[in-house]
Amino acid sequence: MAVTAWVIWGVVALGVGGVILRPWGVREVVPALAGALALVVFGLLPVGAALRGVAQGTDVYLFLTGMMILAELAADQGLFAWAAGWVAQRAGGSAARLFAMIYGMAVVITAFLSNDATAVVFTPAVAAMARAVEAKQPLPFLLICAFVANAASFVLPISNPANLVVYGAALPPLLGWVRQFGLASVVAIGATFLLLRFTQRRALAQPIMAQAHRPELSAGGRHAGLGIAGTAVVLMGASAWGVPLGLPTLLCGLGTAAVVLLPARLAPWPMVKNISWDVLPLVAGLFVMVAALDRTGLVGALAAALRQAGGAAGWRAGLGLGVLVNLVNNLPAGLLAGHALAQAQLAPQVSAAALVGIDLGPNLSVTGSLATILWLTALRRAGLHVSAWQFLRIGLVVMPLALLATVAVVALYP
Asked: 0.85 cut: is pTM over it?
């Protein structure tokens, strides 16, 4: 490998490492942008190539903006507090029952609204639920949002923006997708539930309140809920018609904001101020870094490795990408994998196994997927903290077995 390629890999490693470790407590966006800028400033990546890398994430930026608007509206209008009281009452004082109920809700939200919605929209709701039942250890319930966001992210094409990045114009039709990933999704969701519950078994023995206060749902809260439900319908339609999801999601978010804010004559600025906008430059930084990696010949090397693997290509793609995503994040890894798969021109089950690795592999570490990074941001806003090492210890139990079982399904039963 040329010296320049080694330097690019070094800069990317420092940038991603900074996102993981957050030295001196800096926000994740700082090392991501520093790595991207260093690649340009030191002549490792031309400005034009960097701008094209940023532009590749346009649909993701629009999608995230729409979802963050919906989440802020739901929280501000009391929808989360109302949902927290409703779920807490039905848990009947059982932490294990509450865990299962939240898990099921997270699966539905991930499947029909995307894993980023689970991280952005559902995490604050779960934090409210934990407070409503006075859980002394809220972490088991909050971990659901991170792990399900990845485990359920290939139920449908819209369940994860990375799905669209990997397949691009070759995205299978909706019914074809369900046939290919239906059983795999059941295995991933079920295995992750059992393994995650095992890691949290002691905390789930804690007592929680059997009765929790459920406030009345305001008109704004009802409208926010209808906006979220309407967004799910729109995204399903967009997916069926092959329309990029970013702009429809943004329009749904803006439309819901208008319906909620205008009748009450509320200014939008408090909502705008509370949104975590630094997520967008963080994603842009990751796309620039993958543009630099592309120039090192990584795509060609990946394609060659898949072609040489023969009958083991599905296993190599699924398990290898399951590790790679934790080094460069799932969206950049999805871009690399999509280009490599297009070059290699292999059987459909190889692409399916690759997608499983990209979607489920991030359950190993906090930087594996954008959804997990968004989850960490949502936790901080709720005054909670999970360290990278704490997440990794749980991920080492949950991810490998779930990934192995799910890759086996798509590789052996196409």
From this structure: no
